[in-house]
Design a protein that fits this description.
The chain contains ten helices and no strands. It has 260 residues and is mainly α. It has one domain: MetI-like (MetI-like fold, Orthogonal Bundle). α2 packs across α10 and α9 packs antiparallel against α10. The C terminus is likely disordered.
Length: 260
C-alpha cells in the first residue's frame, strides 16, 4: 500500500518534464548552452508516433532490434556467468583470463564496429557481436564480485561436511552470488540496447537505431524523438523484466534498508 502513495509524485514529476518540454519547444527557448530551436513539441512527437504505429515499418524495426539484442544478450549472459564463476573461484583463471578482459573492457562499442565488420561475414553478425560485447562485461564483473563476496566460512563448513567442488558451487556459491549476478544481468540488458543502437546507426538496414539515424539524415525531427523514446521504453521494460525474473529466482534474498 505504501508504494501507491508514491505514484502521484512520480506522475507529477513526469508531467512537469512534459510541461517544460512543451513550453521550451513551443517558445524555441535558447538558454545559451542548450537551445530548443529545432526540438519538436510533444504533440508533434505524438503525431509521429501515431503514424509509425499505423505503418508496417514498426514491426520490421522492432523485430530486427529485438532479435539482435536478445541473441547477443543471451550469449553474453552464458559467457559472462561462466567466466565470472571460473575467475571468482580459481586463482589460475583470474590470472590468465581477467587481465586481457580488463584491457578490452574500457573499449567503447563504437570502436568495435570497424573490426566487427572485418571479422564477421555479415552486418547482422557484427551487430549481434557488438551487443554481446556491451552486455558481457557488466555480467562478468558482477558475477566475479558476487562469487568473491560469498562468506568463506560457508564454503569451509560445506567442505567439512563432505561436499565436493560441484556441490559447493551449486549449494553455496551460486545462491550466495545470485543477487549480484542478477544485478549484472539487468545492467547488461541496458548496455545491450545502447550498443545495439550504436551499431544499427552505422551498419543496420532495419532496427530502432537505424530508424533514429535515418530520421536525422532526413531531418524528420519528431521521428528522432520517437526512436529515442522507443529505445528508452524497450530498455526499461527489458531490464525490469530481468530484475523481476531474478527476484523470482532468488526468493531468499531481500535488499536491506528501507529509504524514507
Amino acid at each position: 500500500m505504501t508504494s501507491l502513495y508514491r505514484w502521484p509524485l512520480r506522475l507529477a514529476s513526469l508531467a512537469a518534464c512534459l510541461l517544460f518540454w512543451q513550453v521550451a519547444a513551443n517558445q524555441r527557448l535558447d538558454l545559451g548552452l542548450i537551445a530548443f530551436t529545432y526540438v519538436p513539441t510533444p504533440a508533434a512527437v505524438l503525431d509521429a508516433a501515431w503514424h509509425l504505429l499505423q505503418s508496417s515499418k514498426l514491426a520490421d524495426h522492432l523485430g530486427s532490434s529485438l532479435g539482435r539484442v536478445f541473441t547477443g544478450y543471451l550469449a553474453a549472459a552464458v559467457a559472462g556467468v561462466l567466466l565470472g564463476l571460473a575467475i571468482g573461484r580459481s586463482k589460475w583463471a583470474e590470472d590468465s583470463l581477467l587481465p586481457p578482459l580488463e584491457v578490452l573492457r574500457p573499449i567503447p562499442a563504437v570502436a568495435w564496429i570497424p573490426l566487427a565488420i572485418l571479422m564477421f561475414p555479415s552486418s547482422e553478425a557484427s551487430m549481434i557481436f557488438i551487443t554481446f560485447t556491451g552486455a558481457l562485461f557488466p555480467i562478468l564483473l558482477n558475477t566475479v564480485h558476487g562469487v568473491e563476496g560469498v562468506d568463506p566460512r560457508l564454503v569451509a563448513s560445506a567442505r567439512s561436511l563432505g561436499a565436493g567442488r560441484l556441490a559447493i558451487l551449486r549449494e553455496v556459491v551460486l545462491p550466495g552470488a545470485a543477487p549480484s549476478i542478477v544485478t549484472g544481468l539487468a545492467i547488461g540488458m541496458g548496455t545491450s540496447w545502447f550498443c545495439l543502437v550504436t551499431a544499427e546507426m552505422i551498419s543496420g538496414q532495419f532496427g530502432i537505431g537505424y530508424y533514429t539515424w535515418e530520421s536525422y539524415t532526413l531531418q524528420n525531427y519528431p521521428d528522432i524523438v520517437v526512436g529515442m523514446l522507443l529505445i528508452g521504453v524497450l530498455g526499461m521494460v527489458s531490464s525490469t523484466l530481468v530484475r523481476r525474473l531474478g527476484a523470482f529466482a532468488t526468493p531468499w534474498y531481500q535488499s536491506g534498508g528501507k529509504r524514507t
